[in-house]
Amino acid sequence: PTTMKAVIYDGVRITVKEVPVPQRGPGEVLIKVLAAPLNPMDILYSQGKYPTQKPLPSVVGFEGAGEVVADCGGLMGWRVRGKRVAFFAGFDNPQGSWAEYVTCLLYTSDAADDLLCVDLGGRRIIKKK
């Protein structure tokens, strides 16, 4: 697809919009979002009260679970292509988990057991350093 629905925060209000599917940058994977939590960090962010703010406008949601639909190439990219992963969208990324698709750096996603990922992946975060 070329467009997707996403929950956008512009600094004043939250709206659901049709936006372009994000394009991958170097070292990034494209993830089809299957689960995304609603947690206090997301609420504070969408009210402008979270200490770290993403560039605006941005998609709400910092973490979630999904399936890698396009990889970044190389051996590590090949390893996660088609896998379900838990991911962290990041604080400096205008994308977020409250969308149909998100890109994130490969090291902020990690393959997870399918059932664990769908049932729990949106409520936990796996981050490799």
Q: Can you walk through the features of this model?
A:
The longest helix has 7 residues. By secondary structure, the chain is α+β, with helices and mostly antiparallel strands. The relative contact order is 0.25.
| Strand tally | 8
Approximate strand percentage? 25-35%
The largest β sheet comes out as:
5 strands, antiparallel
Identify the overall geometry.
globular
Q: What oligomeric assembly is this protein in?
A: single chain
Q: Structural class given helices, strands, pairing?
A: alpha+beta
The helix fraction, in percent, is 10-25%
Strand order of the largest sheet: 7-3-5-6-8
Unreliable residue stretches: 113-129
Average of the residue pLDDT scores: 79
Number of helices: 3
Gyration radius over CA = 14 Å
> Termini distance?
32 Å
The ordered H/E elements are EEEHEEHEEEH
SSE blueprint and pairings:
Elements: E1 3-9, E2 14-20, E3 28-35, H1 40-46, E4 58-59, E5 63-70, H2 74-80, E6 84-88, E7 101-105, E8 109-111, H3 114-120
Antiparallel strand pairs: 1-2, 1-4, 3-5, 3-7, 5-6, 6-8
